[in-house]
Design a protein that fits this description.
mainly beta, four-stranded mixed β-sheet
Length: 209
């Protein structure tokens, strides 16, 4: 059986502001068809994103010394926040030179278990990831003197919201994820919005001779 889904979704930020998805992009009105079921989805509640901070144990280092990165995230809201990861890797740290060229990536050469993992932060809870870095490039050479910028971010699976009129085919889309099975003219325009909260932070340090 084909199901007509016309999603009326909105983003709820904290407890103060509700932004209809339709305000972001107005979907076309789905066609009238008595052979389909009209479904109205509930509001999608998006929690306040976590706050993040990246720091080093010092601001200046000599070539060959080691840097300790601390990547801390905190849940500032009243509701718990959860992040789902496609593997055991939960974050990434990269180091770029003054020209913006990446010199080192924490995950390079590392093996991660290919299992879905989850991180849950309750209200006010923090999580800190610590990384020891030897001031080398991905190729193993020592970083030359200069100023560098480090970026840390969580690497969760993306979260999507589908809005618009959709004709769902249960054989092609058994999980009712909003996969188009007909053209725009037949089914109405659909939007897939990535609402994954960005959790990232930057810091800089200097390497001296």
């Amino acid at each position: 059986m084909k199901v007509l889904m016309h999603a009326h979704l909105s983003l709820l930020i904290g407890s103060l502001l509700t932004i209809p998805i339709a305000a972001l992009a107005e979907p076309a009105t789905p066609p009238s068809d008595p052979g389909h079921v009209h479904i109205v989805l509930p509001k999608a509640v998006i929690p306040i994103p976590s706050r993040a901070q990246l720091s080093t144990d010092r601001q200046s280092f000599k070539s060959g010394e080691r840097v300790k990165f601390s990547f801390t995230i905190v849940n500032p809201g009243r509701a718990a926040i959860s992040y789902t990861f496609p593997s055991s890797q939960e974050f990434e740290i990269t180091v770029a030179d003054s020209m913006g060229k990446a010199q080192w990536r924490w995950s390079r050469g590392r093996m991660f278990a290919q299992v879905v993992s989850k991180l849950v932060l309750n209200s006010g809870e923090t999580k800190t990831f610590s990384v020891d870095y030897n001031l080398a490039t991905d190729s193993g050479t020592v970083l030359p003197p200069g100023k560098y910028e480090a970026t840390a971010q969580l690497t969760p699976m993306p979260r999507f919201i589908v809005s618009g009129g959709i004709l769902v085919n249960p054989e092609k889309d058994p999980n009712n994820l909003g996969v188009r099975t007909k053209s725009d003219v037949d089914s109405g325009a659909t939007l897939q919005n990535d609402v994954t909260p960005s959790v990232a932070a930057k810091t800089s340090f200097v390497v001296t001779p």
